[in-house]
Each structure stands twice: as structure tokens, then as C-alpha cells.
Amino acid sequence: MGSMGCRETVEWFTVAQAEDEEFRTQLRSLWRAAELDFESMAALISAREPSIGALVAEELSALPREAILAMLRAWSDAVDRGVRFRLVSEPPAAPLAFARNRRVQVVLEFEEEAIAVRLSHVPHRHPRWCGIRPTWGTAGRSRLVEVVAM
């Protein structure tokens, strides 16, 4: 995260979503679906907070799928346990090494009253193999799948 809008995204996903029970219910329903639909997730967030919608869609299309799943799992665990969720955008400790190696780092922290996710990466310098791009399902419903080569 670290680009323009990251602070707003982190703040929204840490504070505003905690106060929006309807959003939490809808996202939990997407999270529990047999096939997680990242496009629907981005649309849901964008509808709730248009100012971060484009950035969220960009992040979901660029970050490794496993990183997104880890963050969602932590969020879902926090909701299930009734504790606070915090998303923290943390500048990489070694930005040149992160950029050179196209590194994305997700750190999970579990405390008595909160679960936190710390995300570190250099924008637009993610592993080339990790992008998620839209495809169309057989029922005509758009869904996103992992792309192995870019």
C-alpha cells in the first residue's frame, strides 16, 4: 500500500467497516462463498466508500491471492471473535530490496482485543505471477481467477 489513498483505505477498513454491520454481513457472505469473487468484493467496497473503490480494485488485482486471503481470514476471525480488526500499511523496512525482489509482506498479529494485519509492499512492484484478472463464468457471471504468467 504506500501509494496515494492508502491511508484512507486503511483507515476505512479499520474504523468505518467496524461500524457498518450491513457491509460486514455482505462481505462475510462473499468470504464464505464456495468461490471467493474478488470483483464482487471490490464492487461492494466501492459502493460503500467510492473514494477508495478504485484503489481497492487495483490492490485486489495486483496483490498475491494468498495475501488477500490471509487478510480476509484475519478480518473474518476478528468479526467472529468480536474483537477489533486493524489493517496497517507499513512502509517496507528495505524498500529497494522489496522493489528489486517484488516482495509483498503480510504480517498477522493476534492480541487479546484485536487482530491486526500489517501489509508492506512497493506499489506496482509485485511478483509478476500474482495478478488476478477477470474472466467470465459459464453462467455469464464475472469472476476473477489467478493468472500464472503476465
Any chance you could write out the topology, listing elements then pairs?
Elements: H1 6-14, H2 21-32, H3 38-48, H4 50-62, H5 65-81, E1 84-89, H6 95-101, E2 104-110, E3 114-121, E4 132-136, E5 142-146
Parallel strand pairs: 1-3
Antiparallel strand pairs: 2-3, 4-5
Characterization of this structure:
- The chain has 150 residues and is an alpha+beta fold.
- The chain has helices at 6-14, 21-32, 38-48, 50-62, 65-81, 95-101, and strands at 84-89, 104-110, 114-121, 132-136, 142-146.
- A 3-stranded mixed beta sheet has the order 1-3-2. A two-stranded antiparallel ribbon has the order 4-5.
- Helix 2 packs antiparallel against helix 3 (38-48) and helix 3 (38-48) packs antiparallel against helix 4 (50-62).
- The longest helix has 17 residues, at 65-81.
- It is globular, with a radius of gyration of 15 Å.
- Mean pLDDT is 76; it is low at 132-150.
How do the helices and strands follow one another from N- to C-terminus? HHHHHEHEEEE
Query: Level of helix content?
Result: 40-55%
Radius of gyration: 15 Å
Shape summary: globular
Distinct helical segment count: 6
Which terms summarize this structure?
alpha+beta, about 150 residues, single chain, 5 strands, disordered C terminus
What's this, in brief?
With 150 residues, the protein is of the alpha+beta class. It is built from 6 helices and 5 strands, in the order H-H-H-H-H-E-H-E-E-E-E.
